[in-house]
Amino acid sequence: MTIGIDQINFYIPQFYVDMADLAEARGVDPNKFLYGIGQTEMAVSPVSQDIVSMGANAAKDIITEDDKQSISMVIVATESAIDSAKASAVQIHNLLGIQPFARCIEMKEACYAATPAIQLAQDYLHQRPDEKVLVIASDTARYGLESGGEPTQGAGAVAMLISHKPRILELNDDAVPFTEDVYDFWRPNGHMYPLVAGKLSKDAYIHSFQESWKEYAKRYNKSLDDFANLCFHVPFTKMGKKALDSILTDEISDETKKRLTEGYEAATYYNRYVGNIYTGSLYLSLISLLETHNLEGGQTIGLFSYGSGSVGEFFTGKLVEGYQDVLDITSHKNLLNERKALTVNEYESFFKRFDNLEFDHETELAHTIPGAFYLENINDHIRSYNTLK
């Protein structure tokens, strides 16, 4: 019995700011952003795109009417929750028109939560051969204007349909999680922006990867030679590269080093132009690898998920023959290429409106794709969504 990712898609807002422009506005050498952290552009979210609308937009093009009848659970992973009680999965379930006899929940553990959501879906489906689970990772990464974390912001969502006989990636039953209580990044109740211990966060990420990888290799008697490529959680593209480099020791062959390094560059191409999307970052990287790199069915991909606080996990999947036919590379490239570039002043206006929940539909919807869901208004703390005609 094989269970895994049958469909995968991402959605990002239709606005971005160029990192070189942001660097110059902040009095920073542009190379610090372009090469130091490895980011070229950063997605900017308007008020009209929150975790619900972005999540629904990521999912709407990959689920058929038959899927809507087969989906019996919707899980949203996020650290950008819009309600402390009601799960955003309930609203997404409604927008997508999924059959009513379904479980809908929201999961939280920083950037890691989409991974246990997938593991839960995998376990759940073992006893349900005719059902499917929709997993959505949706977030807006925000640290504040002129803050240390500003260049590692972003926004977007990734949707994955988990099913039997998947057409993209068969999940192996070999996940190795690693938990350690660390205050490297956290957002106490009532705080608009997270608190970050920058160096500790980088060290905790790398330590979590090393420990989960080392335990995985020991438990399953595996080496890096067994993997076509590795994918990482990507808060910024240089972060995962540091983790990868930490295990490319002298005893690793040059061929393996070259293969994994080239694969990493392919796996972070989309992330470089989107920025940090928290729970979706690993899975945006997976899409990037599948769509920009030459791989074959039957090859094994290793994935490292990380959420500050902290929980990491190393797990693997096997590519399905013909997986390329299921991808929508053209739509994804169009989504990236047809965005509107914002000046730094415009970006700051967007940022402030988002914080204050001040709608400007004339500006924001002018560059939104027709057919997309968007947040129309908030009245008495109730959010109402619509579809752009």
Short description:
This protein is an alpha+beta fold and about 400 residues long. It folds into 2 domains: about 5-170 and about 325-385, Peroxisomal Thiolase, Chain A, domain 1; about 170-325, Thiolase/Chalcone synthase (Peroxisomal Thiolase, Chain A, domain 1, 3-Layer(aba) Sandwich). The chain is about 35% helix and about 25% strand.
How large is the radius of gyration?
A: 20 Å
Give the full name of the CATH homologous superfamily of the largest domain: Thiolase/Chalcone synthase
Supply the CATH class of the largest domain: Alpha Beta
- Provide the number of structural domains: 2
Morphology call = globular
| Helical residues, percent | 25-40%
Task: Outline the structure in words.
The protein is of the alpha+beta class. The chain folds into two domains: 3-169 and 326-387, Peroxisomal Thiolase, Chain A, domain 1; 171-324, Thiolase/Chalcone synthase (Peroxisomal Thiolase, Chain A, domain 1), CATH 3.40.47.10. Helix content is 37%, strand content 25%. The protein has 14 helices and 17 strands. It has helices at residues 19-25, 30-36, 51-60, 65-70, 88-96, 114-125, 198-220, 237-247, 254-267, 269-274, 281-292, 329-337, 344-356, 361-364; strands at 3-11, 15-18, 41-43, 71-77, 103-107, 132-141, 154-164, 169-171, 176-179, 185-186, 195-196, 229-232, 300-307, 311-319, 340-342, 373-379, 382-387. The strands form four sheets. Strands 1, 4, 5, 6, 7, 8, 9, 12, 13 and 14 form a ten-stranded mixed beta sheet that branches. The chain has a three-stranded mixed beta sheet with strand order 3-2-15. It has a two-stranded antiparallel ribbon with strand order 10-11. A hairpin with an 8-residue loop joins strand 10 and strand 11. Helix 1 packs antiparallel against helix 2 (30-36) and helix 3 runs parallel beside helix 5 (88-96). The termini are far apart. Residues 3-164 form the Hydroxymethylglutaryl-coenzyme A synthase N-terminal domain. It is an enzyme of class 2 (transferase). Belongs to the thiolase-like superfamily. HMG-CoA synthase family. InterPro entries: HMG_CoA_synt_C_dom, HMG_CoA_synth_N, HMG_CoA_synthase_prok, Thiolase-like.
